[in-house]
Structure formats: C-alpha cells, structure tokens
Amino acid sequence: MSKEEFRIINIISNYDLESKNTTELLIKKLENKGFIVSDKFNENAELNICIGGDGAFLRAVHKHSFTPIPFVGINTGHLGFFQEILPENIDIFIEKYINNDYIVEKIFLVQANIYTKNRQLQLYGVNEIVVKGIKSKVVHLEIFVDGNHLENFCGDGMIISTPVGSTAYNFSSGGSIIYPSLNTLQMTPLSPISSKAYRSLPNSAIIPGDLKITIKPEYRYENSILIIVDGVEHKYDNITKIDFTIPDRTISRLNFDKDMYWNNLKSKFL
Fold first, then answer.
1. For residue 254, what are the domain limits?
2. Which of 76, 101, 111, 162 qualifies as a cystine partner to 96, CB 3.0-4.6 A?
3. 243 included as an active-site residue
C-alpha cells in the first residue's frame, strides 16, 4: 500500500509515568480515528507528537536531525512553552487536527560554523548556542557583526539565541523577548565585565537575520571554550572562530490557537 493510504503518526515520549499514561491514551484515541501509530520513528509519518516538557521537545528535534515532519507537543512537564497541548485536551486536539483547524509555523534555527586549526564543524540550535568558558572560567572574546568589530568581550560568555529561544536561557539572562516569526538573532552577554582593557555591552543586541555574527576567542583561551547547544555541551580544541547565521533549514510546528503565543507568555512569565 502507498503512503497516501496510511496516516502515520510518530509519538516521541518521555519515560515518566504521566508521559507513559498520556502516550497509551493517545495511541488508543488515534487508532480509533484510523491513524497508524508507528512503534519506532517513521520517516513517512505526517506528524510528530512529542509528549513531555520543553526539554523533551528539544531532544526529539535534535535526535531526529531536524526532520521536516511537523511537530506538536503535549505538555506533561513544567514550563511547556513548546508543548502547547494539555493532556486533558487530547480529544479537542485530535478533532482539530482531523479538520485541519491549525496553521503550520516555521521555526528559525541558529547555525554555528566552528573553525579549528584543522577542521570545520556545524552545529544547529533551536533555542540558542552559548559560548562559555570551561569550568566557569571567565572568557575573553572578540565579537564581530557582518565583519565589523563590535567589542572585546570579557565575562562568563555570550548567548546567541533564536526568536523562539528568546524566552529561554536568553530571557533569564536579561535578554529581550522576540516574536517567533521575526528573522533575527540575539546576542546576550553573560555577566559582562567592563574595564580599561575590555569594553562589553551590558545588554543584548538584536541582529538582522541576514548578517553574520563572528566570535573569536583570544589565542591563549582557544582551548578553554565550551559550546552549549540547547543545553548540551560540546568541547573542541583549538577553536579559531565561530560564525553564527540563520540557516535555510527550519523545523515546523502546528499551532491550534492564533493567540497561543501571547497566552503562553502571560501565563508562564507574568
């Protein structure tokens, strides 16, 4: 049978009791409506349903390599900014999905091209990519925007966040909230130090999405740099520079309520 004769759905769940119970209930309800729930990740699925908190959503996106299959989240965690559906609203969600009563949102990512003395690597983040010192050391970084030298930074590090990530680590560090559809990156300093030797911006800066942000560690600190992508640490030796851009690659998320962003913002942060 062809793909068009099936309506396959992937369920990606946390392992805690509430997530397991929600998964079992969701499978029964979807199968009663004629959907096929794959027992493992299926590239021919039409939808990924992620059950858990925001961490589960981010892990699912990274684990499945930023798949083009759209995501939707059922929140059994704490904050649930990505996970917009509550377990008690599963029936409403299924009916809206069947009736195509939703919009598909594109989520911009942040890409880091990491250059070392002998290779180049690429990392992608949904929320943010952070440059910090290992073992909580102070880092000294040269910051460039579109090839223009901006500052010699001294402090705990620098967050480069996406619009959807603006309400995550960035926001808790004093950064601004940016509406998800805006094509921008945000640089937010972590505990910046200003002295005669180093002049660091005290607040975040919003950078247009078509400009490149470059961070160069001072030579003696090139092996003391830690790169954190959506909460996961990466360590590379002999980093010479890191370029940050918005890639063409995106992920998709279903939105069942046009006011959900503002309702989320108010209920979870105010």
1. 3-107+250-269
2. 101
3. no
16, 39, 54, 248: which one is catalytic? Answer: 54
pLDDT in tens, 38-70: 989 999 999 999 999 889 999 999 999 999 999
Q: How many domains does the chain have?
A: 2
Domain shared by 180 and 216, yes or no: yes
pLDDT digits (tens, 9 = 90+) for 135-188: 888 999 999 999 999 999 999 999 999 999 999 999 999 999 999 999 999 999
237 and 260 within one domain = no
Per DSSP, the residues of the chain read: --GGG--EEEEEE-SSHHHHHHHHHHHHHHHHTT-EE-SS--TT-SEEEEEE-HHHHHHHHHHTTT-SS-EEEEE-SSS-SS--B-GGGHHHHHHHHHTT--EEEEEE-EEEEEEESS-EEEEEESSEEEEEEGGG--EEEEEEETTEEEEEEEESEEEEE-TGGGGTHHHHTTPPP--TTS-EEEEEEES----SS----SS-EEEETTS-EEEEE-GGGTTSEEEEETTEEEE-SSEEEEEEE--S-EEEEEES-TTHHHHHHHHHH-
Tens of pLDDT, residues 189-218: 999 988 777 778 899 999 999 999 999 998
CATH number at residue 130: 2.60.200.30
Kindly report whether the global pTM for this prediction surpasses the value 0.70. Answer: yes
Q: Check whether residue 76 and residue 117 sit in a common domain.
A: no
